[in-house]
Design goal:
By secondary structure, this protein is of the alpha/beta class. It has one domain: Mannitol-specific EII, Chain A, CATH 3.40.930.10. The chain is about 45% helix and about 20% strand. A five-stranded mixed β-sheet has the order 1-4-5-3-2. Strand 4 and strand 5 form a beta hairpin. Helix 2 packs antiparallel against helix 3 and helix 5 packs antiparallel against helix 6. The longest helix has 14 residues. The protein is globular, with a radius of gyration of 15 Å. The N and C termini lie far apart (about 40 Å). About 35% of the residues are buried.
Amino acid sequence: MLFRAKKKEEKNEEKKGLLLRENIRVNCEAKSKEEVIRIVGQMLVDSGYVDQPYVDAMLEREETVSTFMGNGLALPHGVEEAKKAIKASGIAVATFPEGIDWGGNTAKVVVGIAGVGEEHLQILAVIAEKMLDEAAAEQIAQGDVDAIYRILSGKE
């Protein structure tokens, strides 16, 4: 009986999507990039994608190399050593219509990323591809939760 319950929990965990609607925050007010990384990181923690140490690993990554990707997009994620703190692949999104300073650049969309194994590379590629489309990038930066969810989850 115990094993069946565990298998059911694992199946439920597998069904969790990469992006949950509750992990999208729109029209956020400007904060420091460190605060924003903590916010998107905490969303990942609260949703069960990562353990708390992953948030510090996201800040550590930012200290060594900027996660600003251009076109108003920042993709904070943890350092390689933090992979053990990832329970499931997931993302968290925060939008800043006025933009925030990201090391001398302006970020309007911040997507915190946690990827199991090499999945983070696929996640980065998909988000970057969406943001290269200027119309989609504008919809993500200025859109509501449903619009962002449709675009980033591929359920357009």
